[in-house]
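Protein folds are increasingly written down as discrete tokens. With that in mind, we are printing a sequence and the tokens encoding its fold.
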Amino acid sequence: MSIKKNDFVEIEFIGKIKETGEVFDTNIEKEAKKAGLDLKNLKPFIFSVGHKMLPLGLDKDIIGKEIGKDYIINLNPEDAFGKRNPGMVKMIPTKLFHEQNIDPQRGTQLNLDGQLARVLSSSSGRTLVDFNNPLAGKVIIYDYKINRSINEEKEKIDSLQEFLFRKKFDFDITENILTFKVPKEIEQFVNLFATKLEEILGLKIKTKVSQEKKKD
């Protein structure tokens, strides 16, 4: 059976930079160990095909593929992490970093207002910062295998919760309505993703405030 858009599947993969062969991401333990990557929470990835939960070129490539077979694809920057944009290289007064107790050394990666940034150079007066994705402009190779198709509704919903919320909340499904039970302070955040969830699942999304906070 070949994979179609909207199918939920579980995959394992290795992502490499073509120019250097460096592994920058994988969910296969032995490959992560070899590359010196973080092994925490390492597991196969479950997602809905065709909804940009993976780099665009990889997401498209999975359509038509079969479960259990090994595949490899080369992605140009526009189908992977985008082309480098010179306009995303900014000069920032160094004193702004010092005011936040940050020493902006060359090569340091920072999270600035939710954006990953890398320091290109720094002096006492000015710091040059690159807001491009570190993989922007690079040709990427993915080796991947589709382990299985996901058919159980709870597993589909939990996979989307992990991807979108980084948490899993209790939920009920009644008459084509999916209701998440969430703490009050999380309700607005969950509702931000309602349209996307409805598109993927074909269910109406609602929230109900629970009395207790759900643990991570």
